Structure formats: C-alpha cells, structure tokens
User: Which sequence fits this backbone?
C-alpha cells in the first residue's frame, strides 16, 4: 500500500494528537530495530503460535545466507523485552514507559487499503511495572486515551471493552479494545491495549529487585493504534458523494474557491480571497485556496466534497462588493447547508467559521452514534443473534458459554465476539447460548 | 541499533525543523512500501551495482518461499519511480514533489552507533520535473535547506559542495553534499541531494506530455538526511565531560537542580523551583526539574553536563531568600561559566536565559568554525596532501586528475574527495597531482 499525501496528512493529525497525550502520560519515544532474531519470537509460546503464519523472513544479507533467519517485526514485544532485561535492575528503574512510531509487517493474503495491509504504520507502547495493579491501570489508561481520541477527534463512537479469551492478543493476559461500526455495519478493531502480565518477562528473564531486596519479574503492557484508523475514519463518515472528514483531523478544514468570469473581475476577487485566507490562517484554521484556472468552480465543488473538506467558501464579484462570503457545509447537502452573505469582517468571520467547524464535528459524532445505536440488537437467544447478524447488525447479549461455543458462532454466522463492553446493563443475566447465569453481555459482529 | 529517548528526542527536533521547511518549499509527506521487488532494483544499471552488496532480502513470507525475492528498501528511487510512472501523464502533473520519513536497511559489517548502522531512520525526498533546469534548481535548493539547518540549528559549519564522479550516488548525474568535520577531524557526509537526470525515468518509463504535445522523460531529484546527523551533532560538540548540545535542538535546554539540606528548607526551595520552571516553560523554553532524592546535587551536575544540557539553574535556600538563581553554562567550564544572583523576576529571568541560550548557540558554531578552519590545509603537491592527511587534517587543493588518480590517493592515504566546495578561491589553478590546469579545488579527508 502506498499512502498518498491526503491520507498521510490524516495519519499525521492522528500522530500529532496522540504524541502529546503519550508524553503527558509519562511515555518517551524511542526506536528499536525492525529485524528480530527468529529465536526471540520463539521464546513466548503463544506469541510464536499466533504470529508465525504471518511472518516475513530475511534469509540473505549482504550477499550471504544468514545463520539465523531474521523476522521483519510484526510487533516488538520480544525485542523490547530483550532490551528491557538489560535496562531494568531495581524498582528504581520502574515504571519504564516507552512508545515507538514504526512500520510493521504481517503477511496478509486478502488485503484492503488501510484496513488490512502487508505493511502498515503504527505506534506501539511498551511499559514495565513493579506490580500487576500498576500494569492493569496503565492498560486501562491507554485504552481510555484511545477512546477519547476516537470520540473527540475522529468523531467515531467506539465501544471500549475487553476481548474474549479466544480473541486475546497472542501473549497477553487481557486485551482491551475499541470497536467501531463502519458505514457498512462491519466492526473495525480500531485500537488495542494489552495487559501482558509476566508472560514476556518470564520468557526473557526481565527481573527487578523490589524495595525489600526480592527479585521479581516485571508486569507489562503494550498498546497500539495503526494507519487502519485512517480507514476507520473514511468508512465511518463517508456518503455517496465521497469522504466527510471530522474538522478536528481534516488536513484541510476550509477550502476557498474563487469565482470570476470576466478578466477584470479577477484581481478584486483574488485580493479578497487572499485576505480571507490570511484571516483564517492567522486564526489557526487549516485553509486552502484552489485558484487553478484549469478547472471550473463546479468541478472544484465536487472535488472537495469527494475529499470530505468540512467547509467550502465561495467568493465571487458580488461577494466582494458586499464584503461577504458564501459558506457551504459538507455534512448538510444542498441549499440547507449553504449560507449567503456571511461578513468578511475578521471579528465576525473567524468566530462564524470556528462555530460551524465545531457544529460539524459534533454533528458527525451524533449521526454516528445514532447509526450505531440503531444497528445494535439486544438478543436473548442464539436464534435472535443469527437473525440480527443475518440482517447485518450487531448483536448484544449475555454470554458465559465456552470457547468452543464462541468458535461455533463464528463458524455458523461469521460473527465474533468484538468485546465485553465496559458499560454493562444492570441486573441478573442468563447466557443466551446455554441458559446459565452470565456476568456480562458480549457484543457479536462481523468484522474486518 | 536501539535509539534511546534522549537521542530520539534530538531526531524529533531535526524532524520538526525539516518538516516545516519541506512543506514551505512545496513538498508533501507520503509513504511507500518498504519491500521492493528485486526486479525493480535491477532496472537501473549503476543503482543495482552500487546497492546489491548491501541488500537484505526477504525470501519467505507467510510460511512460503516467495517466487520473487523482496528487497528491504536501502533507498526508494525504484519503487517511487514505479508509482510516479502511474501518476504522471502530462506537464500539469509536474512538478511532483514528495518526501517520506522511513527506516532503511543497508547491510553493514563495521557498524558504529548513529554513523553506520544496518538499519537507520531518514527522510528521503523525491521529485519529478519537466526540465533539467528545474531539477537542478531543486537539488541545489534542498542542499541549501540542509546547509542552513546544519549552521543555524545544529551549529555544525558544514562545507557544501559537489561530489566527484567516483563518489556520486549510484544512479545520479550529480550529487551535492554537506561535509562536516567531527571532533576527531574525520569527515562526516551529513546530507546529500542528487540530480538524477533521466536515469530512473528512462529505466522505468516515467514520461509526460509537454505543452507542445511531445512525450518526454521527467527529470528527477532525491535528497536525504538520516539519524547519522544525530551522531554528527554528538561528535562535533562534545568534550571530555560529555555531550554539548546546541540549544536550538537540545531536548532539554535548561535543567533546574534544587538544593536543600535540612527538611524544613525543602518546601520553600521546591516552591521556588516550581515557580521558575513555570516561568521558563511559559516562555517556550524546554526545561526539566530533577527533584529526585536518590541522587546528590553534585551527581546531578555531572550527569547533565554529560548529557550536554546547555544551562543549569541551581536554587538553594539562600537563593530563595534573595529571590535569585545560580546559572551555569555547559560550554564555559568552571567559575567563568557561573553567574550568581540572577533575579527570579520573570521579566528579568526569561530574557536573561534566552540571551544565554542564544550566546551558547552562537558560541558553539564559532568554536566549530575555528576548529574546522585550523584543520584544513591548502596543498599544492601530492606530498603536501600526504603530510596533511598523515597529521589527521583535511587537505584542500586544485584537482583535475583522473578517477584512477583519485582511487590511488584513497589507496595510499585512506583519504577521499569529500567535495568540490561551492565556495572556490579565485584565480588560475594547477592540479596538485598532474600539474594540468584545474578549474576547482577539492577537499580530501579521511571519513566515517
């Protein structure tokens, strides 16, 4: 997959936001090698089992056959633990909290742009702690950072929760996830945070001396969000006319299209356009002027609608005379989304545009919540689940059945447990599969 | 190589600066796959010749032997051209100017942290133009961006110039370089910019229709700076006590060390420390407080000297009473670099610290220029060159001899032509090797 500038700019917006949050929560960026000796991968039993079908292997380097094959990292827990073992001696070295922005490789046969690709970009956080409680708190904190990002920046109303045992990350004790409903109602796992327990620290001998002089294995977490999230944004908010980007992460928040017919109109229009551009830019708004003379205004309207730019400003000769602009909202089609005669006066225009951007941001989230909620069905029997899934919906119901039952559901309906949501209904529950008491409801859906 | 947080933070400072400059000069970030089919690499004859000894090859993916070996990118000209060929049709699509931040792999046997590593991080710019003149202008513009960065941010007085034919990038017509003198007087090639001519566009059939309807091959450039530059900063400015970081790219510009002995002194000192920290932070200064009670102030002084933090502030009980701080400059050792009784008043302190940071930035550059200039010898015979190189210096002299002569110098002295500097002395010159007329002086040195 090649990531072209517009998609990459969305990824940069994701990076800019998360980088600040990661640093605020005490993490430092660093970088680990991407080639991992095969023997490292083999050290944690369930990890190698989970990842070995997906590995890309380097066997030749500098013209020679290598003695030990090198794995192109599918994730970095093993090489991170190899280094943590050298860096950690005592409780004074803990917690150790790092993050890396990197490319990873997982051999995929059925690829889909942004969602499932052989190589993708991501951030992976890795932490080591003195106690299980601290590791658990960290894993929860990071899924919370992801949840807030999804709601507030990407306008995606993800459902945070815990993965089932079957769906837990290879090498983790617990996996937390945020699950997003795409426009086609398939689920997208948009970010995960793992409580790794002592699985990797035991495999790699990552130990520390505690305050009482006892040698213990560290407790660890890891957590990641990838370029898949860019696909999630595209598939949550689009419509038939193209993308619809949430203002907070849109590479272009406002596009200005100058309109003029006769040659003598041009200079006045372009002067006004430049002035409005400056006013918005100074106010911190990401604005682009498309003054190309190779395309008509109508072509540009369609083009930036397709690109999902939240607001379009049109400025023509009459607007120049009236010292006003025409504003169109991407999320409200047709005349309803159009305002005429909005003053160019900086003190009015800036507040007006900022207000509209906020409205669009809120409105996209609201619509996505309504769509999500109208497509989740509460079920109390396996028959009801099958029906919901067959209709393309998500099914939510009490679940305490076995791993084997979970795999049976997958085989028969293609739906998997997306998560046990953190938000649970009150009261006694009965497993819809077995009729036994159940502590929690689970959400089932087909997924990417 | 693992890049730990402090080194990575220097790389982030480099990224932050260059990213802005690249965008200002019209480039967009994007991302290309790192696995390149082997057949791509073979298409440009001198490119494959130059890179094939250094390649890492993936031969197994998803458990199966691959039909075509994949090269882990050593640089991306080939895959970029593969895509450019699809994206470029007409002169309207030009110039096409992109950049990518990525990891690259070159199989190195003799590695050295930051300077020569099997995998490193870099940015690689790639552009396509309608004319040779435009490509040449772009290649020169980017070496100029690098030169300004080196001088103004990294305080490294690099010498920009053109590589000899022997040292030109595999696949380029011309390579421009910035050459830096390290503390041990070895040369470091710190950044390069290539005019690729039509070499890759002919190999990949990257063509466009010009304004007259003629089909032409595009003219291209590529240019790169890598994590090697972090090594360059470290090896330019250090002394026996450790690093010495230029304030403009130092992850920590000011470290505050609180000093207190009796328990009842602590709260007043820490209150003053917090207040000073806030004052500096608000002013945009990167400040860190080290309030650990596990280490003594003396230990901290040494530690942050070693880390190269430009300014240290000490605040003790007497300073609290006087509402003042003690300031120490990293670049001026001992008492001379120490100021007592600098007022904590924000209106005085901020200007004072900012002024000192600027002085340190300027002083590091000045010292590096003096060091460089005292270690370059003008030579007018091969004997003089041998003498200069044997003393560990750089030799500068008129050169118009053959590639074979250049290789002879390398064999006999280990020195190579680093560049024909852009800045040339006036007047007629005679090649110091052959006695023939020479148009330019070249700089010879041993290098990393």
Assistant:
């Amino acid at each position: 997959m090649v990531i072209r500038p517009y998609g990459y700019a969305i990824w940069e917006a994701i990076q800019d936001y998360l980088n600040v949050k990661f640093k605020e929560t005490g993490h430092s960026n660093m970088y680990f090698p991407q080639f991992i000796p095969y023997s490292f991968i083999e050290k944690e039993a369930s990890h190698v089992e989970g990842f070995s079908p997906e590995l890309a292997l380097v066997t030749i380097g500098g013209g020679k056959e290598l003695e030990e094959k090198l794995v192109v990292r599918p994730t970095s827990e093993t090489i991170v633990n190899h280094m943590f073992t050298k860096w950690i001696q005592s409780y004074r070295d803990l917690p150790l909290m790092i993050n890396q922005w990197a490319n990873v490789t997982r051999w995929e046969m059925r690829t889909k742009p942004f969602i499932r690709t052989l190589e993708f970009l991501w951030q992976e956080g890795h932490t080591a702690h003195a106690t299980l409680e601290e590791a658990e708190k960290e894993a929860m904190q990071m899924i919370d950072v992801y949840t807030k990002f999804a709601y507030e920046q990407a306008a995606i109303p993800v459902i945070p929760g815990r993965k089932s045992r079957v769906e837990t990350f290879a090498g983790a004790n617990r996996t937390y996830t945020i699950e997003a409903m795409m426009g086609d109602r398939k689920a997208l796992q948009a970010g995960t945070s793992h409580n790794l327990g002592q699985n990797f620290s035991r495999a790699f001998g990552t130990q520390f001396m505690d305050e009482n002089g006892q040698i213990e294995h560290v407790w660890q977490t890891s957590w990641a969000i990838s370029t898949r999230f860019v696909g999630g944004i595209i598939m949550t908010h689009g419509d038939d006319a193209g993308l619809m980007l949430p203002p907070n992460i849109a590479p272009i928040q406002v596009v200005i299209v100058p309109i003029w017919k006769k040659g003598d109109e041009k200079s006045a229009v372009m002067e006004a356009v430049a002035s409005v551009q400056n006013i918005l830019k100074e106010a911190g708004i990401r604005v682009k002027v498309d003054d190309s003379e190779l395309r008509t205004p109508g072509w540009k309207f369609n083009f930036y609608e397709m690109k999902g730019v939240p607001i379009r400003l049109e400025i023509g000769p009459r607007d120049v005379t009236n010292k006003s602009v025409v504003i169109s909202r991407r999320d409200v089609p047709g005349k309803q989304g159009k305002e005429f005669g909005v003053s160019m006066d900086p003190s009015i225009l800036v507040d007006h545009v900022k207000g509209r951007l906020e409205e669009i941001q809120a409105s996209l989230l609201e619509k996505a919540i309504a769509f999500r909620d109208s497509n989740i069905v509460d079920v109390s029997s396996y028959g009801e689940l099958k029906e919901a899934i067959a209709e393309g919906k998500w099914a939510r119901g009490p679940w305490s059945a076995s791993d084997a039952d979970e795999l049976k559901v997958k085989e028969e309906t293609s739906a998997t447990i997306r998560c046990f949501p953190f938000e649970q209904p009150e009261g006694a529950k009965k497993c819809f599969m077995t009729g036994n008491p159940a502590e929690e409801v689970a959400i089932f859906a087909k997924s990417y």
